[in-house]
Design a protein that fits this description.
By secondary structure, the chain is α+β, with helices and mostly antiparallel strands. Strands 15, 16, 17, 18, 19, 20, 21 and 22 form an eight-stranded antiparallel β-sheet that branches. A five-stranded antiparallel β-sheet has the order 8-9-13-11-12. Strands 4-5-7-6 form a four-stranded mixed β-sheet. The two termini are about 20 Å apart. Helix 1 (about 30-45) packs antiparallel against helix 3, helix 14 (about 380-390) runs antiparallel to helix 15 and helix 16 (about 455-460) crosses helix 17 (about 465-475). The chain is globular. It has 17 helices and 22 strands.
């Protein structure tokens, strides 16, 4: 594959062949310029960039993985442009790396072998809203907050909330979820159809062009094949999503506990009681202290649950009553309430700022977020054991999690220039992932595999499942051009 390196107007390019064994050879400047010219013939001069700053911006996400910039960034404005650009890349065997907003946490946008980054921000239209059917189709530049702003006067909303204002097609690509998943599900449950540009430029509609039924038994589930594929099978250029009616009432609360065990036991018991809680988030004492300092709050520095209830006024009374009884039986404090929209916004902003609050504990350091998920019955055990592991190894790893569905994160704050600390963090994350696997869980509840968890994926699903995945990849992308080096 051709790798572009900007130096004195492409005076010294390098080329590689895309295969299992990459061999390199020299090329004339004219060959490089012809490819650039082809890309510009589709997207115009303003739609193609080889500037270093632009390439570096598109070679990193929010993870600890180092920046690996692409050789070219293109900014398509339509699916036809994406298809035409993909055909050029396919012909010249150039890697293709889709890019949404860069909010991922597993290095999924790094151009490991150079190539062309498809930055999709200019495709930002809400295309089809069907209020009576509770669905909408959006382009990849539409973000979660942008869609809900568009829906503001319709009485509908899209509740999947990973915290960051991620692009919705990017959220589909990573099978994102977040704080509302316990009630509304993840992206896997909320994507009805996808338009995908394959590696050769072919345009696929995974459920059939224009189709948007609430359920189907028609053939293989191609939609969910691409949900969570992390850009390794194709570029998602449209997604059709389920919408929900905005609840009559929303109330949030905060409750502190004397121990991790009592807080997590309360979570399990609330779910076992059948309370249709919308959000139930756990923060340990280190995390709540960080949030207090970062957001100028004054919550008790003890293990804490953030909760939210959705429903009618009558149903909310029952939900709150049952939940208060359970938390009280486990030594929980009285609820601190946030009822109006502004108060609830402040409360959940504190939770969503957990990443930055953790970083602020050690200025100048980097952060890495673990992402395990286990059956909820195993949640108390794994969080207690994880907390003990952090303390015994003198690691800074405040815990925050979507405990309502068994998913939690240790936000590991470390000095990347301290080899001993880096090794201790690495060993801890490996232990944590394998602890989750031993409890019938997963090494990633929502962030994806990306670069760092490929070996863990093999341990999780087994060699046969990996071979099946490789077979699917080879069928859809035989030249291994789509985001190579990720997942598998």
């Amino acid at each position: 594959m051709i790798l572009f390196r900007q130096a004195l107007r492409f005076s010294s390019p390098r080329l590689q062949l895309a295969c299992g064994r990459c061999r390199r050879y020299s090329a004339k400047t004219g060959a490089v310029e012809r490819v650039i010219s082809e890309l510009r013939s589709v997207s115009g001069d303003e739609g193609v960039s080889v500037g270093l700053a632009v390439r570096e911006q598109h070679g990193r996400d929010e993870s600890v993985h180092r920046c690996q910039p692409p050789d070219v960034v293109v900014f398509p404005r339509s699916v036809d442009e994406v298809s035409a650009l993909a055909k050029i890349c396919h012909h010249h065997q150039l890697p293709i790396i889709p890019f949404g907003t860069g909010t991922g946490l597993e290095g999924g946008v790094g151009a490991l072998q150079g190539g062309v980054c498809f930055s999709l921000r200019k495709m930002d239209q809400v295309l089809d809203l069907h209020q009576e059917d509770f669905d909408v189709t959006v382009e990849p530049g539409v973000t979660r907050k942008g869609l809900n702003s568009f829906l503001r006067d319709t009485g509908l909303w899209f509740p999947v909330d990973p915290g960051a204002d991620a692009s919705l097609c990017g959220m589909a690509a990573t099978s994102a979820s977040g704080t509302n998943a316990v009630r509304y599900g993840t992206m896997r449950e909320n994507v009805l159809n996808l338009e995908v540009v394959l590696a050769d430029g072919t345009v696929l509609h995974t459920a059939g062009r224009g189709r948007r039924p609430r359920k189907t038994s028609a053939g293989y589930n191609l939609t969910n094949l691409f949900v969570g594929s992390e850009g390794t099978l194709g570029i998602i250029t449209k997604t059709t999503l389920r919408l929900y009616g905005i609840p009559e009432s929303m109330v949030s609360a905060v409750c502190s506990f004397p121990s991790v065990q009592s807080a997590v036991d309360s979570t399990v018991q609330i779910l076992q009681a059948g309370v249709p809680i919308a959000r139930i988030e756990f923060l340990d004492d280190v995390m709540i202290n960080a949030c207090n300092r970062f957001n100028n709050l004054s919550y008790a520095i003890t293990p804490t649950l953030f909760l939210e209830f959705h429903g009618s006024s009558k149903s909310m009374e029952e939900q709150v009553s049952i939940t208060e009884e359970i938390t009280r039986d486990n030594g929980g404090s009285d609820f601190a309430w946030a009822e109006d929209e502004e108060s609830r916004g402040r409360l959940w902003k504190a939770r969503h700022d957990a990443w930055y609050a953790a970083l602020a504990l050690r200025p100048g350091c980097k952060a890495y977020s673990t992402d395990v998920c286990v059956p909820i019955s195993r949640l108390p055990q794994i969080i207690v054991e994880t907390k003990e592991d952090l303390i015994s190894n003198n690691l800074t790893g405040p815990i925050a999690g979507h405990v309502g569905d068994g998913n939690f994160h240790c936000i590991m704050v470390l000095d990347p220039n301290d080899p001993d600390e880096v090794e201790r963090v690495h060993s801890f994350t490996e232990r944590l992932a394998r602890r989750a696997l031993a409890m019938d869980g997963t090494c990633t509840g929502e962030h994806g595999i990306g670069l760092g968890k490929r070996a863990l994926l093999r341990e999780e699903v087994g060699p046969l499942a990996i071979e099946v995945m490789k077979g699917l990849k080879a069928t859809l992308d035989p030249k291994n051009l789509m985001n190579p080096g990720k997942v598998l």
